[in-house]
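Quiz preparation item.
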């Protein structure tokens, strides 16, 4: 996300995902649906199938700053026997596992930051009450930071954002630092529709403005 450091961007992500670069000249927002949100699929939610061309536009605020950012799946790569989605954000590429765990940020072919093991924003299937933990090393040029995070699935909630109204599942993340996150995964958009978090004394929010899925077989 453009309004915070690379370290903070990791904590947001997926995409991880909250990073740099406002999108200039973004298309106008899609009008919100005036009708009720579509019901969420029955049963536990499994990991979405991302395709090259999937594209999300978010409006963000952070303190007194605001803007938009665009993320797009640009490739699917196999590295050392592991498959990754490659998501372009500004002039960087972010690597996610098929479970949407954030692994690394790459710019001009060079790894600028990575998390070992990848940061598990989601643990599939998403079931209300599920909990999991992550201990890892966030490595970047400035040094290494130890992460000790705890995640939980709170349950279903309806969220209304500029892109429309969605049935979603709320998740939370707590850390051993002054960071915290609440985010709403919406099956209809295959990622979060809203993100609310804190990095130290700064609060930020992301709200989906537009989702353009890549073509899929009928």
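Solution:
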């Amino acid at each position: 996300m453009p309004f915070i450091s690379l370290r903070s961007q990791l904590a947001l992500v997926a995409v991880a995902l909250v990073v740099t670069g406002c999108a200039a000249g973004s298309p106008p927002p899609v009008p919100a649906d005036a009708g009720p949100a579509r019901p969420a699929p029955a049963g536990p939610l499994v990991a979405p199938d991302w395709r090259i061309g999937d594209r999300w536009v978010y409006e963000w605020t952070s303190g007194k700053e605001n803007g938009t950012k665009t993320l797009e799946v640009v490739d699917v790569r196999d590295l050392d026997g592991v498959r990754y989605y490659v998501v372009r954000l500004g002039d960087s590429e972010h690597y996610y596992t098929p479970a949407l765990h954030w692994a690394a940020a790459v710019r001009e072919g060079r790894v600028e930051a990575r998390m070992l093991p990848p940061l598990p924003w989601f643990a599939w299937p998403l079931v209300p009450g599920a909990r999991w933990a992550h201990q890892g090393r966030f490595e970047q040029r400035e040094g290494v930071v130890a992460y000790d995070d705890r995640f939980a699935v709170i349950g279903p909630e309806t969220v209304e954002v500029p892109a429309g109204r969605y049935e979603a599942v709320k998740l939370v993340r707590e850390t051993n630092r002054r960071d915290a996150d609440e985010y709403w995964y919406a099956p209809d958009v295959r990622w979060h529709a809203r993100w609310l978090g804190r990095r130290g004394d700064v609060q930020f929010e992301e709200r989906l403005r537009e989702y353009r899925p890549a073509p899929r077989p009928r």
